[in-house]
Amino acid sequence: MLQPLQGRFGNDGLQYHFFCDDDRVFGVRVVKTALTEVHWAWVSDRDGTRTIHRREAFSEQAEGASLSMHSPGFHIVTDETGGGSLDVDGPGGLHVDFEVKTRKDADRQLEGQTTETFYHPDLDCTVTYDGKTSPAIGFMKRYMYPEPPRHWHWLFLQGYASDRSYSLWTADACFAFLKYNYFRILPRDGKLFEADVTRTHHARGLVRADTPDGGEYEARFEPIAEPADCLIKTAEIETLVRQTPVRFTLSDGAETSEGIAIYEYGAGTA
């Protein structure tokens, strides 16, 4: 599936998470509004959590049908499958090649909004940073809508089991006065589980959702490294985004598993 071109919507968000076999964690984010475009990348490894790149610059779209965005020191190129590569300048330099295994379209839209949201929850990746190359598993989220709410707030947990047996992503958010939440698990067999949206919520260090058989999933998580922060600010908007590497434990009452994730907090004006 093609990654849509930029410019079709007033607010366009793109993010990638990469979890390497050597335990390094990377976050890459693009936040585009009518007033600004921010590119941000960070790494968490044995030396701590630190920003690789942060720049405000409207990117240019190369010719072609799929997303190919370029700005000083920041490049993302995709093909007709949604796979591709990204290059980020900064201390250590970051290069990632990624292939798409599964695509998930969002089936819920905010009331009164013409939105497009989709996910690639299990990317096959090769990550090179600071001269070291490692296999990795990755996640992509893309959201686009023409008229963003003035105020927004969200909590988002995304990660993988330690044995890579499943991908987990779950959110609890408000866009203006509109509630938006979900809880999803994608196991290796490709049979996506989505909880009833009225039966899932986030709390401090905790996410709960109903299981298919009427039980309850409980995901508990705690930080394993310092957070990475990005403040998006102009004369008219101000939003803080924080991403924190965490370790989670997921239980369904019968079985328990562990994994690594990124927990994202965002709040402000758009």
Walkthrough of the structure:
The protein is mainly β and 270 residues long. The protein has one domain (11-269). It contains no helices and 22 strands. The protein has strands at residues 11-20, 25-32, 37-45, 48-56, 60-61, 68-71, 74-78, 84-88, 94-99, 104-105, 116-129, 132-145, 151-161, 166-175, 178-187, 193-194, 200-203, 206-210, 216-223, 228-233, 238-251, 256-269. The strands form two sheets. Strands 1, 2, 3, 4, 5, 6, 7, 8, 9, 10, 11 and 12 form a twelve-stranded antiparallel sheet that branches. Strands 13, 14, 15, 16, 17, 18, 19, 20, 21 and 22 form a ten-stranded antiparallel sheet that branches. It starts with 10 loop residues before the first strand and ends with a strand. The model has no long low-confidence stretch (mean pLDDT 90).
The number of strands is 22
Multimer state: single chain
Domain module count: 1
Net shape? globular
User: What is the element string, with H for helices and E for strands?
Assistant: EEEEEEEEEEEEEEEEEEEEEE
Any idea what the radius of gyration is?
18 Å
> What is the average of the pLDDT values?
90
Share of helical residues: under 10%
The SS-based structural class is mainly beta
N-to-C span: 28 Å
Summed up, the helix count is: 0
| Residue runs with pLDDT of under 50 for 5 or more positions | none
Could you tell me the strand content as a percent range? over 45%
- Biggest beta sheet attributes: 12 strands, antiparallel
